[in-house]
Amino acid sequence: TDLAALAHGLPKAELHLHLEGTLEPELKFALAERNGIELAETTVEQVRATYDFTDLTSFLAVYYPAMQVLQTADDFHDLAWAYLQKAASQGVVHAEMFFDPQAHTSRGVPFSEVIGGYRRAIVRAERELGVSGELILCFLRDFSAEYAMATLMEALAYKPWILGVGLDSDERGNPPEKFAAVFARARQEGFLLTMHCDIDQVGSIDNIRTVLTGIAVDRIDHGTNIVEDPSLVALAIEKGIGFTTCPVSNSFVTEQMKADEIVQLLRAGAKVTVNSDDPAYFGGYVGDNYAALAAQASLSAADLVQLARNSFEASWLTPARRDAYL
Ligand code: ADE
Ligand code: ZN
Questions:
Q1: Which residues form a coiled coil (predicted)?
Q2: Which residue's CA lies nearest to atom 1 of ligand 1?
Q3: How far is the CA of 168 from the centre of ligand 1 (A)?
Q4: Which of 8, 135, 235, 292 has the most crowded Cβ, counting Cβ within 10 A?
């Protein structure tokens, strides 16, 4: 339909994308072969058959082991380059991309290989696709605060290549306050801050309150549960906090897109955005997410234009570059 074409064609920023979540089965096989790794599956269909997620935990149980094929800077480059080309084909002109260094350093891959490869893809995308890219370092919240702090210290050598820090992985038992000192230090070092407040978590409204009022993040990833507390919605709007929602991903981890919550935030005037999260696993890149939400919630063309506009307003582009897109 025309709306689906608009969903894919509108120039937009992507703000919630895990680079490791863009590993398509075809590339996984190619990297396994290059690195001499034996995989349990031998066909793309067998790999996709394992994508039978019922919640965040069952997704993460597939997501982390797949990363064993990522070993050298070339591998990380190829992963990010494939994503950036795909994103460009769905209207992305700017991408602020999460990466999970501890998913690699914890298995012996040097931080320098990870960020070196990703950076090379970003420079190439700017030159060859006209797409700008930035990196957001995510700490894995199921590891210790000490490991997160050590990772932050290691990242300081690459400050010009890292725009901000985030927090992902399993939220259960790993609340934001566990990382308060790490995020305070990151802020001191000049990084922007965001955190996942996942949508399938009982009690996540308390975590949303903590990240807004205690940690004082600049953005919230997912966070649609905030509609449970209208006073927090009002606070987020007053602070100009962006929400990076991921409808297709939501439909895997909770069996619904959370379309009502997303639209409620949109109508209230919050800076709510639509993103793809882990597109290789959930089967939808960012344009597909705009289209899926539009179909589910009967959005208008004007709504899609507003969502794309929000993606720049909630981005961490400099004001001059952001305004050029508005
Ligand atoms: N890591 C990769 N994708 C994630 C998600 N959707 N939630 C939490 N951690 C993640
Ligand atoms: Zn995410």
A1: none
A2: 169
A3: 5
A4: 135
Contact 189, 151 (CB under 8 A): no
The ligand whose atoms approach the alpha carbon of 63 most closely is: 1
Mutation test residue for ligand 1: of 20, 23, 79, 169, the one with most atoms within 8 Å of CB: 169
pLDDT (tens digit per residue) in 121-130: 999 999 999 9
pLDDT at 204 over 90: no
The Cβ of residue 201 has, within 10 Å, a number of other Cβ atoms equal to 20
Q: Which two tokens stand for residue 324?
A: 């050029």
Q: Please name which ligand lies nearest the alpha carbon of 275.
A: 2
Query: Does ligand 1 lie within 6 Å of residue 21's CB atom?
Result: yes
What is the rounded average pLDDT of the residues 242-268? 95
Instruction: Please tell me the distance from the alpha carbon of residue 241 to that of residue 237, in angstroms, as a whole number.
Output: 6
- 89: how many CB neighbours lie within 10 A of its CB? 12
Q: Which residue matches tokens 């060859």?
A: 128
In this prediction, residues 21-39 reach a mean pLDDT of: 98
What is the topology classification, in CATH, of domain 2-319? TIM Barrel (3.20.20)
E-assigned strands of 210-313?
Answer: 219-222, 242-245, 271-274
* CA-angle at 53, arms to 286 and 32, nearest 5°: 75
Coil, strand or helix: which one is 172? Answer: coil
CA distance 326 to 322: 7
Neighbouring-strand partners of residue 139: 167
Cβ–ligand 1 distance for 278 under 6 Å, the answer: yes
Number of Cβ within a 10 Å radius of residue 40 = 8
Neighbours of 107 (CB within 10 A): 12
